[in-house]
Amino acid sequence: MKVLHVIARMNVGGTARYVGDLVSAEPAGFESLLATGYVQGSEVEDDCVHGLPIVRIPSMGRAINPVRDLRAYLQLRKVIREFKPDIVHSHTFKAGLLARLVPGSHKRIHTFHGHLFDDQSFSGLQKFVITALERFNASRTDVLVSVGEKVGRELRAARIGLGQHWVSIAPGVRALDTTTYSGEFVVGWMARVTSVKNPMLAVEVARLLPSTHFVMAGGGDLLDEVRAAAPANLSVVGWADASQFWSSVSVALSTSDNEGMPIALIEAQLAGIPVVATDVGSNSEVIADGETGFVVSKSADQIKAAITKLASDSDLRRAMGLAAADRARLVFSPEKMIAAHAELYMALFRLAI
């Protein structure tokens, strides 16, 4: 069975690793190919791309550009015609829009790794148009996948894919090669430094806790702004190796306005690090509140309170870290994720869903 995965670009992050694992796994009886464009601006391509069976769509990119998007559609249509996939599995908005417009007898699957409803970089009009397009494309899709139950519920609440076949598949995450950190108490934030991740909220929290050391890692369009606003107790380091980063912090922090199931937070928990995260997307499925960390509102005061509690109680920190590692290994197994997708692909034909 031939499966063509389509994504606009494989920038550093959890979505790229999720897709990369699916493409590289190739269970018996499957042949996979990845169609993708190139990273743009300050973005960096994820190392997981190396060694994958890949075909480039030169005009594909995240930004909306009618001329380039038409070229990308034609390039993708040519790839589909030549590869002759049984399934075209698209990921994220742009790739999902173009891939599901290509005609053919192949089955169509689209995975939502999150949504754009809370993304401050999009205007109200842009969100309206995107939602309308998602509703239209959902009607052309055999199966819709959400990376997290809550993300799926929020999409259906926006009347996307009502009456369609939905499944939720948690990401499979491999533990990084980390060491246990035993130095001073350090709070670590790792994500794209862009509006949807709300890095300025982390800066605000750092100001409220001047005696606590914070480290922010990642690149993006707000990196210079964050560096300029950072107080003395906040180190902004840019792109960093995830293994080294999670070996150097005591607590992981996420201040996002919107998430799917953030791979970075799962990697932190696999490293035995408790997490403090905003209650958005499927964060509450990644973190067991009060057991492996704290899920809080998008309030600097609530985040401060959670961090203070962990900073003042090393036994609690240790217990949450152990629970986080145990739960992450059980819930976010790569083998479970790959098996769930293989079963979904087979069911498309066996049950004609």
Helix content: 40-55%
- Let me know the number of strands: 13
Main CATH class of the largest domain: Alpha Beta
Output the CATH homologous superfamily of the largest domain. Glycogen Phosphorylase B
Please write the string of helix (H) and strand (E) elements: EHEEHEHEHEHEEHEHEHEHEHEHHH
What does this structure look like?
By secondary structure, the protein is α/β, with parallel strands linked by helices. The chain folds into two domains: 2-172 and 333-350, Rossmann fold (3-Layer(aba) Sandwich); 186-331, 3-Layer(aba) Sandwich (Rossmann fold). 40% of the residues lie in helices and 17% in strands. The protein has 13 helices and 13 strands. The chain has helices spanning 14-25, 66-83, 93-99, 124-138, 149-157, 199-208, 223-229, 242-246, 263-270, 283-286, 300-311, 314-331, 334-350; strands at 2-7, 31-36, 54-56, 87-91, 107-112, 143-146, 166-168, 186-190, 213-217, 234-238, 251-254, 275-278, 293-296. The strands form two sheets. Strands 3-2-1-4-5-6-7 form a seven-stranded parallel β-sheet, with helices on both faces. Strand 1, helix 1 and strand 2 form a beta-alpha-beta unit. Helix 6 (199-208) packs across helix 11 (300-311) and helix 9 packs across helix 12. The two termini are 16 Å apart. 44% of the residues are buried. The mean pLDDT is 92.
